[in-house]
Amino acid sequence: MNIHEYQAKALFEKFGVPVPKGAPAKSAADFDPALANFAEGTIVVKAQIHAGGRGKGTFTDGFKGGVKLCPSRAAAKETAAKMLGNTLVTAQTGPAGRKVQTIYFTEACAIKKEYYLAILLDRASSRPVIVASTEGGVEIEKVAHETPEKITKVFVDPAYGLADFQVRELIFKLGFTGNEAKNAGKLIRQLYACFWETDASMVEVNPLITTAGGDVLALDAKVSFDDNALFRHPEIVALRDLNEEDPKEIEASKFSLSYIALDGNIACLVNGAGLAMSTMDIIKHFGGTPANFLDVGGGASKEQVVAAFKIILGDPNVKGIVVNIFGGIMDCNVIAQGIVEAVKEVGLKLPLVVRLEGNNVVAGKATLAASGLKLVSGDTMADAAQKIVKRVA
Ligand code: ADP
Ligand code: MG
Question: Is domain 113-237 classified as CATH 3.40.50.2300?
Answer without folding.
Answer: no
